[in-house]
Amino acid sequence: MGESQTYCPPQDRNAFVLVYPQIDPVAVSLGPLKIHWYGLMYLLAFATGYALALWRIRRSNSGWTADMVSDLVFYVAMGVIIGGRLGYVVFYGFDRLVDDPLWALRVWEGGMSFHGGLLGVLAAVFVFCRQYRSSWVDVMDFVAPLIPTGLLFGRIGNFIGGELWGRAVIDPTYRFGMVFPHVDNLLRHPSQLYEAVLEGLVLFVLLWWYSAKPRPRMAVSGLFLIGYGVARFVVEFFRQPDADKGFILFDWMTMGQILTTPMILTGLVLMLLAYRNDRLNPRSGVSAS
Predict the structure, then answer these.
(1) Which of 99-103, 108-112, 238-242 has the highest mean pLDDT?
(2) Quick one: pLDDT at residue 3?
(3) What are the CA-CA distances from residue 190 to residues 155, 160, 163, 236, 239 (Å)?
């Protein structure tokens, strides 16, 4: 895809070219104790999800209590961390695991898979539902609008860590891009920020608005799968494919797009079934007050 070419600055003086700031991955260092930015982003993600969930249960008919929300956030956090790391190891880094088994435990170095994290959340919600004898579908509808804020902070963590950078911009007239000096001297798409906006902010606003009123059961979950799937599929055209994988199908489809396609199809099926049954789920609504 032209990665070996030398970067040529845009001819347009109004072009907005940024240089990636070299950010220390350690946010706070107190002697032997080191707090990484990546860990702080996860902490912010879970804290934000917890606060939003408490806001949701203000609805008098929500059926949720603060204790239930606390337990749910704990289960989801475990699902995200364990599932996300295992998913990354299996989908993207199995060869490295063979060479260095302890690498799988070094979560603070980065390397989490959204798709693995999603599977972890699905499993965690199942355990939660067993404990509280709740409907798995209803709980997933409750959780879905909270997930994009975690994606927002996660992608910011990717950016701070200087990982998952975008593809090189070859067109010299392109007006926007970023140079990542620790990678090369090419102008690249800051795809981490694209994902933070689309998968995080935009998807959150969409789901928060949509779930502000009772919707058919499975509809909120279906919209999440469609929304994330489309956003991720599109951004993959700007994100640099993994070096050890490259393009897997049709000489243009990446691993992220392959894993995301079933999400979009599943979301469409859920939406179809939801509106065909048209049974409202009042517990999925968000308090508009």
Answers:
(1) 238-242
(2) 46
(3) 11, 11, 10, 12, 8
Does residue 244 carry a pLDDT above 80? no
The Cα–Cα gap between 63 and 66 comes to 10
Cα distance between residue 198 and residue 210, in whole Å: 16
How many Cβ atoms sit within 10 Å of the Cβ of residue 218? 25
Question: Exposed, middle or buried: residue 38 (CB in 10 Å: 0-12, 13-18, 19+)?
Answer: buried
Residue carrying the six token digits 């897997």: 248
Domain map (residue ranges) of the chain = 16-284
Bin 236: left if φ > 0, else alpha if -120 < ψ < 50, else beta: alpha
- Cα–Cα distance, 15 to 3 (Å, whole number): 21
Within 10 Å of residue 258's Cβ, how many Cβ atoms? 16
pLDDT of residue 285: 45
- In the chain, where do the E strands start and end? 16-19, 26-30, 33-36, 176-179, 187-188, 215-216, 280-281
Distance CA 57, CA 182 (A): 45
From the list 255, 256, 266, 253, the residue with the least C-alpha distance to 231 is 256
44's tokens: 């912010």
* Beta carbons of 45 and 154 less than 8 angstroms apart: yes
User: Confidence class of residue 11 from pLDDT cuts 50, 70 and 90?
Assistant: very low
pLDDT tens track for 160-219: 988 889 999 877 777 788 999 989 988 999 999 999 999 999 999 999 999 988 899 999
pTM score, two decimals?
0.83
Position 2 pLDDT exceeds 90: no
